[in-house]
Amino acid sequence: MKYIILLIAFLLVPQLAQAQEIKWMTMNEALEAQKKNPKKIFMDVYTVWCGPCKLLDRNTFTNKDVINYLNKNFYSVKFNAEGTEEVTYKGFTYTNPRYQEGRKGRNGTHQFTSALKVTGYPSLAYFDEKGNFIQAVAGYRTPQQLEIFLKMMATDDYKKLTTTEAWNEYQKNFKGTFQ
Description:
Elements lengths: L1 H18 L4 E2 L1 H10 L3 E7 L4 H10 L3 H10 E7 L6 E3 L2 E3 L16 H5 L7 E5 L5 E6 L4 H12 L9 H10 L6
Parallel strand pairs: 1-3, 2-3
Antiparallel strand pairs: 2-6, 4-5, 6-7
Helix pairs in contact: 4-6
């Protein structure tokens, strides 16, 4: 009996670990998913050489509160700002014609990155339920720092924050719950 329980536990552990990951997809997949089930899109715009991007992956995107909130409220997209993925957005296909295969370090900037006016990495971009671009916020965030942005976007509170004073008041009154 002891061995059966151990065997069952051994078989279930990988499934439980997998359940605690962000369900990353491509931008094209997220836009397609929105057609069936409208949800906002959260996009991690990163580069392979970016140290803070790696910290975001290791420290923030492994946090159970972040994982649960993103999986419930957003389609989460991982987008390499210097990669080769083709993105079809608003009737235009974005590519990276300046990409150089095998290049170490920085590479050509993807056209979609430029279209979003993202110039710093990591940047966290948000899109509404119809795929319209809302905003990109540059910089590394801890789970607790990211929480205010996720909840502000998910609840549409961002629509009310039209002044610096309103944003400052929102931050002051925000009560975070992420551990």
